[in-house]
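Hi again,

Forgot to attach this to my earlier email, sorry! This is the prediction with S-adenosylmethionine bound. I've pasted everything inline since the attachment limit keeps bouncing my files.
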Amino acid sequence: MLHHLIAVKECTKAFAPMPSGLGHYDQALYLLLGRQLEEAPGSGPMWALDFGTFFGHSAFALLLGAGKASQTPRTHVLTLDIFQQPEWLLRQPHIKVFTEKFGGSDGPAVRRWLDDLCSRCGLPKDNIKLRTQDVMQLRAEDLQAISPNGFPLVSIDCGKTPELMNKIVELVLDNRVTPLGATLVFQDFFDWHAPWNAYAFSKMIDRGYAGIRHVAPHLGPLLEVKRHGDIGLVCQTGGSGPIQEDWCRPFAALEDELHTLDQLVTLVEKTGDAGAARQLECLKVGAWLRGNRTAEAEALIAKLDAQWPTYLSDSPLQNAYRRVVHVKTNHKDLTLVLNTPHRANRTAPAARLGRRLRQRASMIRPFALKPVNAI
Ligand SMILES: C[S@@+](CC[C@H](N)C(=O)[O-])C[C@H]1O[C@@H](n2cnc3c(N)ncnc32)[C@H](O)[C@@H]1O
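Structure tokens for the complex follow:
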């Protein structure tokens, strides 16, 4: 258990004013997982694998968490990235602050920032191993050479294409990379731009390679490796969709994608995480769009809108709606709002207040992983 507010405050203070890819709940989760890794039975180094460094926040939060359990943590993090950030991102004012201070956004610059962070927080900088690496070219034996006992914790946040997702699945199910029981965190689980994350997550469960053991508050389920082996190519590759956006590329037959998401919704409902289930249902809108079935996508939006609980923010639904409009008009406007009588109920002052109170309450409560019966 970890006090959410304290964790987030500490992480945010350490990171400020640098760009973070981690939200508040992610910070709490990574601190908790880092501490749990440090406290795991046994001796010798414990390695976490961080797919997608960005500016290093997930890697650092894990080490910061480990540092809560020991002044000389045995937890090490291997963090990998190609460090080729897009131009639009590098133009953002807060990223410019970073690049000016650390001399760029490449591996060496992020290394300098991590060293600075570690020295400010009294943590051993050598416990974070940073590599400039294209994950597509990564081999299980390269990872085994770094941690012969594997990586009991894997954070996944670079599965930005179906091709990358296939590669990541291949690696995490390789017995040279993870021990049985390893935890897999999908940082991109609900992200619209990487829908194959939830799909691959579900396929690993379906085919008996993994199971859900925990649910993280506001972040959804975590996966645990149950069996190693060659699952094959989970996602189809090379497809093209109705618009030129990666998320619109079909990566599975429509019926299969919808069925897989339905199964996942059912599983997640069983864990008691209604918010995660609603978010996954919104991903089904994307599946219809990838299959060129705009009318069905709109019908699903209308259905979800009518049933959306007032105690949950409807931003996943709004996001889905914007993507429907994008596909229909070929014009991307992420400020559009689906305004309906149902939304009016959700935006009524009492409903807003209820959500705000729930959010405050969840931040005051200690942050803990909720165990679920193995699914
Ligand atoms: C969302 S960011 C990761 C956020 C990070 N985990 C954090 O907590 O701030 C995704 C990262 O994946 C990286 N990436 C994309 N394709 C990659 C590839 N083929 N190999 C390695 N990294 C890649 C990007 O450069 C980007 O930095």
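Residues 246-363 form one domain. Residues 254-270 form the longest helix (17 residues).

That should be everything now.

G.
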